[in-house]
Every structure is written in C-alpha cells, then in structure tokens.
Amino acid sequence: MKRPKIDLSKEGIKEFFFRHGEKVFFGAACALILLFFWMGFSTPAYNTTTPSEMLQIAERAEDYINRNDNWEKIKEYRQADSEAVKRIEESEQLDPAALPFPIFPEPLWPRRTPAWTPSLNRPRISARGFSAPRLC
Fold first, then answer.
1. Helix (H) or strand (E) holding 126
2. What is the spatial distance between Cα 95 and Cα 39, in angstroms, rounded to a whole number?
C-alpha cells in the first residue's frame, strides 16, 4: 500500500481539515470525555471518615478557635478601632426620606398602546336580506 503524502502547505492543511475535520473534533471530544471520567473516578472518596469522626474534627477546630493563646499570637495584627463607636454616635443622623431619590424614576418598560379592536355591530336584517356589519 502506498504511503500517503503529507502536504503542509496552506492548501494541503485546508484540504485535510475539509476532509477529516469532523473526525479530529470528534476525537478531541471523546478524549475530553474520557479525561473527565478519569478525573471523576480518581478523586478521593470520603467514605473513610465516619460521622462521629467528623464531629470530633469539628470540635477540635472549635476548641482551637476558642483557645486564648491563639488570639494572643495574632493580637498585634488584629487591633480594634476603639473610637469607631464614638464616631458613629457623634455623626449626623441620616434621614432616608430626605434623600432625593424617586421610587420609580422612569417606567421599567415602555408603555404600549392598546390593540385596536373593531366595534361590534349587530347584523342588520332588512327586507332585501341579511347584511353583515362592516368592520372598518
């Protein structure tokens, strides 16, 4: 069997993707699906930890947070602003009703005109016969 010639020119690449583009993209999609399945099945499962062990882990974390020596380590970085309450109490009280903000400054959607409905007249019956009402 004769070996296929590889044409790396612009026309050759266009011809290759014209003839085999859907196969290339289908192969890439299949590869991505297989990659996602492999990644999904290779993640660690959490079935080794029982609910009581998870409760113990949570209690240990809570004890670590509530210990005073941990807060002593970060106290120089976590300085509270003791003047904040005083500044808030001394600030001018804000009246929300005095703000110049209309509730609905403009319609949320444009107003549409109602649809035209023809007037409905009763049919006229005369000696000459039946006549239907005019719609226009």
1. strand 124-126
2. 57
Q: Residue 6: phi, psi to the nearest 5?
A: -100, 120
- Under DSSP, the state recorded for 125 is E
> Which residue, chain included where needed, has tokens 């080794």?
48
Of the pLDDT bands very low, low, confident and very high (cuts 50, 70, 90), residue 92 is confident
Q: Which two tokens stand for residue 2?
A: 């004769």
Q: Distance between CA 54 and CA 61 in Å, rounded?
A: 11
What is the predicted pLDDT for the residue at 83?
Answer: 87
DSSP the chain: -PPPPP--SHHHHHHHHHHHHHHHHHHHHHHHHHHHHHHHHTSPPSTTS-HHHHHHHHHHHHHHHH-HHHHHHTTTT----TTHHHHHHHSPPP-GGGS---SSSS-SS---PPPP----PPPEEETTEEEPPP--
- Residue 49 DSSP label: S
What pLDDT digit, counting tens, does each position of 19-76 carry? Answer: 888 998 999 999 999 999 999 888 877 667 788 888 999 999 998 888 878 777 777 7
